[in-house]
Design a protein that fits this description.
Layout (H helix, E strand, L loop, with lengths): L11 H16 L3 H7 L3 H5 L1 H9 L1 H11 L1 H4 L5 H12 L10 H8 L1 H9 L11 E5 L6 H10 L3 E2 L8 H9 L5 E4 L6 E4 L4 H5 L2 H4 L3 E2 L3 H10 L6 E4 L6 H9 L5 E6 L2 H13 L5 E5 L15 E4 L21 H20 L6 E6 L8 H10 L3 E4 L1 H4 L20 E3 L1 H4 L4 E8 L7
Parallel strand pairs: 2-3, 6-7, 6-9, 7-8, 9-10
Antiparallel strand pairs: 1-4, 1-5, 3-4, 10-13, 11-13, 12-13
């Protein structure tokens, strides 16, 4: 190995990414949180490497084992090896620099590729790219004119198209076509090939277009606060749903947007300012301390609390995720507290939407059931009816009068992130149902 020059350092982005991966593996920390905390700018750009490793973890680990990469090179850090192999085989296909670890992994490229190709790995078909028009800055008509000018073709649906027809249309999108969503105004759907194209597009950078999964857009769609109303977003950062609520309200009224984390609060302030949200009042604080004195006249509430997040397709995982009953118990306890607080602390509230990016019943139907028991002044409305019956996946029927009224977005069926939603309405005095 005398051909290596020991003084050449490993590029900073690889070292920083390996540091995050190592912490995630050894300390079972969330990669998303670790990336968010990392101050080095390039690490965010290499989030793609961590996602590639998450998606192809079995193939990468097997290739490293089969080729003897770590066994032959005991001084090569395991996490750094995983990052470099991922970038070389599943990422850019090349590595930067001439450091010893980089050159070592390069020498194994052919053997690594053979190891990967010798085993069948189930490759999941990516979901489409959803792009939502920020109507604070760009009208829907102008957005469509822009797309036509760029030679995109709109795929039309028949007037009597069903939800099943709509899903078929998404699956059969040509690369130069786009669809307009049938549930949420201003949501455009593109072939998955264009994910990276839109991620770096000028209209996205300028916040005219917002990259927001269709499933998370359903929260504001179901809450449907009228123009001029007063809304509370209890767990608001990073602000995508807050911005969507602002669009639904045509930037008229007031939105109190609460966030407890200082860093996430700053991100919330940044995006709402950049996106032209004139009606948002960001609040740094604990949602459980908010009441009608701090947030007066609240009529509509969005409750989107911390959850296990196992429904997120962009989730980066470095281990086989198993159900953690203790963690779910703690999360559900907090979720019940926040949702019950929304029901009891704001006397003028009319509607509440509860939303998680979890597919576990403990965080969903069971939380809804308990909050209805604690707050009999509220009832569930049918999410399916609110979406004009153009939806199929609802909650568990074992939860009587609850499951059928809740809604699930299921990744493999609905081609979205995995999301749960429930819509509550405050009973009128004569409503004894």
């Amino acid at each position: 190995m005398s051909q290596f020059t020991h003084s050449i350092k490993v590029p900073t982005q690889y070292k920083a990414t390996a540091k995050i991966l190592k912490a995630a593996i050894e300390k079972q920390k969330s990669i998303k949180s670790l990336i968010f905390e990392e101050k080095h700018a390039r690490v965010r750009s290499l989030q793609a490497v961590l996602k590639h490793y998450s998606d192809n973890r079995g193939a990468v680990d097997n290739a490293i084992e089969e080729t003897g990469l770590l066994k032959d090179n005991p001084n090569l850090d395991s996490a750094l090896a995983k990052v470099l192999v991922t970038e070389l085989i599943f990422g850019r296909g090349e590595l930067n620099g001439e450091s010893r670890p980089v050159q070592t992994v390069r020498l194994y490229k052919e053997r690594l590729q053979q190891a990967v190709s010798s085993v069948e790995y189930q490759k999941k078909e990516p979901n489409p790219r959803y792009v939502r028009i920020n109507t604070n800055l760009l009208s829907i008509a102008d957005a469509l004119d822009y797309l036509y000018g760029e030679e995109w073709r709109r795929k039309q649906l028949a007037a009597d198209a069903t939800y099943a027809d709509f899903l078929v249309a998404i699956r059969t999108l040509e690369e130069d076509e786009f669809l307009i969503d049938i549930h949420v105004e201003g949501v455009l759907i593109f072939h998955s090939k264009w994910s990276h194209y839109w991620a770096s597009h000028d209209y996205v950078r300028s916040k005219k277009f917002i990259l927001q999964n269709k499933a998370t857009c359903l929260a504001a769609e179901l809450l449907a606060p009228p123009v001029g109303s007063t809304v509370l977003d209890m767990c608001a950062a990073p602000g995508m749903k807050t911005l969507h609520l602002c669009n639904v309200m045509q930037n008229q009224g007031r939105i109190y947007a609460v966030e407890q984390s200082k860093e996430r609060y700053k991100a919330l302030c940044d995006i709402t300012n950049e996106a032209g949200c004139q009606i948002v009042t960001p609040i740094l604080g604990d949602a459980l301390t908010m009441d009608s004195t701090k947030c007066p006249d609240v009529e509509y509430v969005l409750v989107d609390p911390s959850c296990s997040g196992n429904g997120m397709q962009s989730r980066i995982s470095v281990s086989d995720e198993q159900k953690d009953d203790k963690r779910l118990y703690k999360l559900a306890g907090l979720q019940i507290k926040i949702l019950s607080h929304a029901m009891s602390a704001f006397p003028n509230v009319k509607r509440i939407v509860y939303c998680t990016c979890s597919l576990w019943k403990e965080e969903n139907e069971q939380v809804v059931q308990r909050c209805l028991q604690l707050n009999p002044l509220f009832k569930l409305l049918s999410c399916k009816k609110a979406l004009r019956n153009k939806w199929q996946n609802v909650g568990d029927k074992e939860y009587v009068k609850i499951g059928k009224n809740c809604l699930y977005c299921l990744p493999d069926h609905d081609l979205t992130d995995g999301i749960f939603l429930a819509l509550f309405e405050k009973r009128q005095e004569n409503d004894c149902e």
